[in-house]
Design brief:
There is one protein chain. The protein is built from 27 helices and 16 strands. It is an alpha/beta fold and 659 residues long. Helix 5 (73-107) packs antiparallel against helix 7 (138-154) and helix 6 runs antiparallel to helix 11. It is globular and about 75 Å long. The model is unreliable at 654-659 (pLDDT under 50). The structure holds FE(4)-NI(1)-S(4) cluster (XCC) and iron/sulfur cluster. The site of iron/sulfur cluster (SF4) has 14 residues, from loops.
Length: 659
């Protein structure tokens, strides 16, 4: 495949070429050798759950239509999907648990390297959990909060407090009526494994009900806890400038990349890297300083709070190593390509794993524990510095880097819109009601070599903002948007007139970076605030909004998508879920589920067409709310398309007549 078809990102294109010159294999090459990919897997109709199998269903109807136990395509596809959701929810929630554990250590005076950085938020979150905060010292509040939150993961009775108190009341009612109110976090994940054991739940709809409950325990539970407690420990984000793309690597400095998802170690790495003694050591080794850059969601965590530059998104992790300018890449958990281990053998880059949950054969492991954070950070930075002299003369750093603004938390959006003294979502709601804004969209998620890197993300976002839809973003989509210049206030010039006016008046870009994968929970709380502000219905499913994960690849993305659907959001993927082997399940997820829950899935591979489907959904919600017509002429008008269709049919008819 030609380099340009692999990525639209210039820096990535250059590095893909360099990989070819150096004859090292990267994800795209392995993707080529994988063709054709397994159809049974893509359609979701291969089952390996017991050892009478493996079994697979013949999608064309001439071979077997049931596994040896009798499970049909609907059961098999549903079981496979819900297991993916369990893995995704588990990843986010285990991340949340680790942050809660850190908060508890701090509260007990054991996590000496951490502190409560955002007392205001601590008190706010504590009061949501009905913890008395007045006249109580901060440590005590933190202790009580961490204990309540940790209890949420494994409790055996009742339902999840955060789902109840953060979501709009109308939504909670829908969940209760549907019987999908999450009861705890771990319990839902365990129950997925039980239900999908051989010979338990085989009703695809019943499985999907539990899929929704499990994903809700992620979005409004594990992920939300991760976000809220990270803000307390590492401080709530505020608008901050950063740079994005491989050009942030510095040819004269020790380059250290932090990759993965959890901020606990990387946040400390950032502060320790400013230590005089370490800087002196770097100079002795011939470097001009220490440059920390991020990759994937660890990047998002630290750029939201410290403005640390981001070297790239998921598909760029190997490309960073190929620059030959990275002394060390450390990973915590999630989204690490196992290939990085052997790739680093070709270059001087040292790969280091740090979590007891994530090790790689042949790769150095420096284990990180919260009670020893600074020392571990120091050891890792020293390892990077010592590796600087091993750099080859033949480094290549692409020049591309783009300026961007991030740091838009749920709370900051209040302030930016309403002003510091009168924080409110009113101006946002009014803009939608008056037709200055068509609506809002959350565009998030990964990269995937099945599609052209970054293209699907960028094409979709551009189409949305051109049609006066404000975009909020997280994860690797956010990094793609930053690299494409969509997070500069000047990007307002690419928007429809209404959105442009808002960006200019408030001084924000049209694409708001709200954080990492777990911070998709910020999008949920933003939606809850918009509902609470009033004038746009009383449930999330009433809002003129849509969600999308254009280049999704991870199981986490499915859990995220499912909790948005279960929260009432229309959720678009540009590559379908692996369920097409079951017509019934696919129809349920993309149609019938909407009557039950208010949200649904959709898939469309062309990102511009996908954006149009999202716009149609937004328009449908605007019409149901009887909102004013759009203030300015819109680029995409569904009626025009209808007219065009009619015209085309006429032309066809005439042609037939002539023939
Ligand atoms: Fe991973 Fe979060 Fe996906 Fe990027 S976006 S590839 S999950 S790093 Ni969440
Ligand atoms: Fe086959 Fe049923 Fe076993 Fe799955 S559970 S492998 S369909 S026999």
């Amino acid at each position: 495949m030609a380099v340009k078809q692999r990525s639209i990102d210039k820096a990535s294109q250059r590095m893909i070429e360099r990989a070819g010159e150096k004859k090292v294999e990267i994800a795209w090459d392995r993707h080529d050798t994988m063709q054709p990919q397994c159809g049974f897997g893509s359609l979701g109709i291969c089952c390996r759950i017991c050892s009478m199998g493996p079994c697979r269903i013949d999608p064309f109807g001439e071979g077997p239509q049931a596994g040896i136990c009798g499970a049909n395509a609907d059961t098999i596809a549903a079981r496979n999907l819900i297991r993916m959701i369990a893995a995704g929810a588990a990843s986010h929630s285990d991340h949340g648990r680790d942050i809660a554990h850190t908060l508890k250590l701090v509260a007990e005076g054991k996590g000496k390297d951490y502190s409560i950085k955002d007392v205001k938020k601590l008190k706010k979150v504590a009061s949501r959990y009905e913890i008395e905060t007045e006249d109580k010292d901060v440590q005590q509040i933190a202790l009580e909060l961490s204990e309540v939150v940790m209890h949420e993961f494994g409790k055996q009775e009742g339902t999840l407090i955060s789902a109840e108190v953060y979501a709009p009341p109308a939504r909670v009612k829908v969940w209760n009526q549907a019987g999908i109110m999450p009861r705890s976090i771990d319990r839902e994940i365990v129950e997925v494994m039980h239900r999908t054991h051989m010979g338990v739940d085989v009703d695809y709809k019943n499985l999907m009900k539990h899929a929704m409950r499990t994903s809700l325990s992620d979005g409004w539970g594990g992920s939300l806890i991760a976000t809220e407690l990270s803000d307390i420990l590492f401080e709530s984000p505020k608008p901050i400038r950063f740079s994005a793309n491989l050009g942030v690597l510095d040819k004269d400095k020790v380059n250290l990349i932090v990759h993965g998802h959890e901020p606990t170690l990387s946040d400390i790495i950032v502060s320790v890297s400013r230590d005089e003694e370490l800087l002196k050591m770097a100079k002795e080794k011939g470097a001009k300083g220490i440059n920390i850059a991020g990759m994937c969601c660890t990047a998002n965590e630290i750029l939201m709070r410290h403005g640390v530059p981001v070297a790239g998104n998921f598909l760029q992790q190997e490309l960073a190593v190929i620059t030959d300018a990275v002394e060390l890449m450390l990973v915590d958990v999630q989204c690490l390509m196992p290939a990085s281990g052997s790739l680093c053998n070709y270059f001087h880059t040292k790969l280091i794993t740090t979590s007891p949950k994530c090790k790689m054969e042949g790769v150095q492991h420096i284990e990180f524990h919260e009670d020893n954070a600074v020392e571990t950070a120091r050891e890792i930075i020293k390892t990077a510095i010592e590796n600087f002299p091993n750099r080859s003369k033949n480094i290549f750093i692409p020049k591309e880097k783009e300026k961007a603004v991030a740091g838009f938390s749920t709370e900051i959006i209040f302030q930016i819109l309403g002003g510091y003294y009168r924080s409110t979502y009113r101006p946002l709601n009014n803009a939608i009601i008056e037709g200055r804004l068509r609506g809002a969209a959350g565009v998030v998620g990964c990269n995937n070599p099945n599609t052209q890197h970054d293209y699907v993300h960028i094409a979709m976002i551009k189409e949305l903002i051109k049609n006066d839809v404000l975009v909020v973003t997280t994860g690797c989509n956010a990094i793609a948007a930053a690299k494409a210049g969509l997070m500069r206030p000047e990007a307002a010039s690419m928007c429809g007139k209404g959105l442009q006016e808002i960006c200019e008046a408030v001084g924000i870009p049209p694409v708001l970076h709200v954080g990492s994968c777990v911070d998709n929970s910020r999008i949920l709380t933003i939606l809850a605030n918009v509902v609470a502000e009033g004038g746009l219905g009383d449930d999330i499913s009433d809002l003129p909004v849509a969600g999308a994960a254009p280049e999704w690849m991870s199981e986490k993305a499915i859990s995220i998508g499912m909790y948005f659907v279960a929260s009432g959001v229309y959720t678009m993927l540009c590559q379908p879920l692996p369920v097409l082997g079951s017509e019934k399940l696919a129809r349920y997820l993309t149609e019938e589920i909407e009557d039950e829950i208010g949200g649904k899935w959709a898939w469309e591979s062309d990102p511009v067409k996908a954006a149009h489907l999202m716009l149609r959904h937004i328009d449908k919600k605007r019409a149901a709310l009887k909102l004013k017509p759009m203030m300015y002429e819109q680029d995409f008008k569904p009626e025009d398309q209808e007219k065009k269709k009619v015209q085309n049919t006429r032309i066809l008819e005439t042609e037939t007549v002539e023939a």
